[in-house]
Amino acid sequence: MNRIDPTARASxxxxxxxxxxxxxxxxxxxxxxxDIAPDGAISLSFFDDGSPLGDFIRDRxxxxxxxxxxxxxxxxxxxxxxxxxxxxxxxxxxxxxxxIGGHRDAESRTFLPTGxxxxxxxxxxxxxxxxxxQRLFSPDHWFAREGALxxxxxxxxxxxxxxxxVMARDWVERxxxxxxxxxxxxxxxxxxxxxxxxxxxxxxxxxxxxARLDELLRWATHRRALEEDWGFGAxxxxxxxxxxxxxxGTGKTFASTLLGKSTGREVFRxxxxxxxxxxxxxxxxxxSSLFEAAHRRDWILFFDEADALFGKRTSVKDSHDxxxxxxxxxxxxxxxxxxxxxILASNLRANIDEAFLRRFxxxxxxxxxGPDERAEIWRRALPPRGDDGGRAELIEAVxxxxxxxxxxxxxxxxxxxxAVAAGRRDVTLEDVELGVRRELEKEGKVFRSLR
Length: 451
What we know:
- By secondary structure, this protein is of the alpha/beta class.
- The chain folds into three domains: 6-176, no CATH class; 191-365, Rossmann fold (3-Layer(aba) Sandwich); 371-442, Helicase, Ruva Protein, domain 3.
- The protein contains 19 helices and ten strands.
- It has helices spanning 13-31, 52-60, 64-78, 81-94, 115-123, 127-135, 142-145, 169-176, 207-229, 252-263, 272-275, 282-297, 307-310, 319-337, 354-357, 371-381, 388-398, 405-421, 429-442, and strands spanning 103-104, 111-112, 149-151, 165-167, 191-194, 240-245, 267-270, 300-303, 341-346, 362-365.
- The strands form three sheets. A six-stranded mixed sheet has the order 5-7-8-9-6-10, with helices on one face. A two-stranded antiparallel ribbon has the order 1-2. Strands 3-4 form a two-stranded antiparallel ribbon.
- Helix 1 crosses helix 3, helix 5 (115-123) crosses helix 6 (127-135) and helix 16 crosses helix 18.
- The protein is elongated, with a radius of gyration of 28 Å.
- GO terms for molecular function: ATP binding; ATP hydrolysis activity.
- Residues 238-370 form the AAA+ ATPase domain.
- Keywords: ATP-binding, Nucleotide-binding.
- Belongs to the AAA ATPase family.
- InterPro entries: 26S_Proteasome_ATPase, AAA+_ATPase, ATPase_AAA_core, P-loop_NTPase.
C-alpha cells in the first residue's frame, strides 16, 4: 500500500456514509430483538465509485460478517460518536445490555468495540454464530494476513472476545483519507525512506556485479507470478535476502534505491542504532512494528552497516551478552520470515556471522572502481560545462586518484562550488585536486598529487 494521492481518487465519504448506515440499522435491529440474517433486510451496500473504500469492497468482496467487523473497527476513527449514540439510545428504551461489551477510552471517552460487541451484534445468543465471529480473528484470516485489524489479547482469565478490535493505522488512513502516511522516525519505527532521481545507467559497476543485481531485480519483479501462477508459493522460503558488501561509497545504498524505483516499492533504511534498546524486550517490540508495517506495504528494507547486529555473536560472559545475542537471534528470525526483500550492507563480508551467510539468497560484492570505472564516474559526476576537450583532459588527469564512486561525487560537488564561488563557468584541475585532498583527508589518507 504505497501512498495514494487523495486528490486523484474519489472520496471515501459517500461509501462511509452508506456503510455506517448499514451498521446503524444493524445495531437498532439487534437492540430491538430482531433476528438478522446476513442475506436479509440489511445487505452489504457500497458505491463502486473509484474510492479506496469502494475498490476494497469490490475487490475483496467481504462477507456480511467480515463487513460488520471491519466497520466496527473503523467507526471510532471515522465517526467516533456513532456507536455511543446508538447504544445510549437503546439503553434508554430497553435497559442495560452487558452483552454489548466494549471499552471506553479514558481520554476521549469514545466507545471502543470489542470482539464481544461484534459477536452480540452479529450472532446474539447463537453459539455457532459467535464462534464464526471469533474465527475472524484467527492468524490465518485475511484480517491478520493483510494486517488490517486484530483483536487485542484479553486479560488473563477474561472472556476470549473481551479484547478491543483494533484497525491498523495505515488501514484507517487509507479508508478515511485515501492516503497512507509514512510513520514518523522513532524508536518504534526506526527507519527512513530513501529514494533517488537517478537511473541504472548512473550506477557504474563491473559486469559481474550488475548481472547479480539483474537477477535480484528479476526476482523482485516476477516473484508474485512464481508463487501464484507457477505454484511455487508453498515450496519457497518467504522473501529474499541479499548481502551487499564493499567499501563505503561503492554504490550499495544507490543500488538499493534503484531496485525500489524499478519495482515500484518504497525503500527504507533501518537505523540499527535506534533499534537496539537497553531495556529488555524493547528491541523485539521495535522490530516487530517495523516488520509489520513493511509487510503490509511490501517495502524493501535496507540495513546499512549491518555488522552492528548481524555480526559475529559474542560468547556469553554476562547477562548483557546473553540479551545482546537474543536480540540478534530475534532479528535474524524476523529477516528470515519477512516475505519481501531485505538487503543487508556491510563494508566487509567477513564481519557477518557465518551461520547467517548461508541464509542469503544473493551475496553481491561492490568493489572499489578501477581507473576505467573511475573515469566513467567522473564523466557522469562533473558538471557539463566548458569545452569537451578540456573536460576529457581533466578526467584523464584525475582518474588515477583511488576514490570510490561516492567520493568522486563529493569531489565533483566541491569543485563545482569552488568554480561558482570564483565566478568561473567550469571547474579546473586545481579545484578537483583540492577536493580530492579534502576527501582523502576525511578518510585519514595522505594526498599525493599525480602531476
